[in-house]
Amino acid sequence: MKNTVLMDENKLIEKAVGILMCDLGPVETARFLSLFPTKRTESVKRHRTWQSKLDKKIFFRQVFAPKQTSQRG
After folding, report:
1. Does residue 73 belong to any structural domain of this protein?
2. How far apart are CA 22 and CA 29, in angstroms?
3. Can you tell me the distance from the alpha carbon of 40 to that of 56, in angstroms, rounded to the nearest whole number?
């Protein structure tokens, strides 16, 4: 059985777009890439995911920290 090594995502994207540009040109490449819109996480789900990873103590300390004022002299 042959071992498969996956290339880095950035390298994969760079290579794939290069191939598309050579074969299709810039207009058709852009058109092709726009056919597959990225899936957005629904806002409540996205907020809950963010909240679940939040350290409340650090967050509150940052939000309610005294404001720094700059002094000019």
Report:
1. no
2. 9
3. 26
pTM over 0.85: no
Q: How many domains does the chain have?
A: 1
> Shortest CA distance to 28 belongs to which of 16, 20, 18, 38?
20
Report the sign of the C-alpha dihedral through residues 45, 50, 53, 55, in that order: negative
Which residues span the domain enclosing 17?
9-63
Mean pLDDT of 46-71: 84
Residue 18 lies in a domain: yes
Residues 6+ apart with CB under 8 A from 7: 15
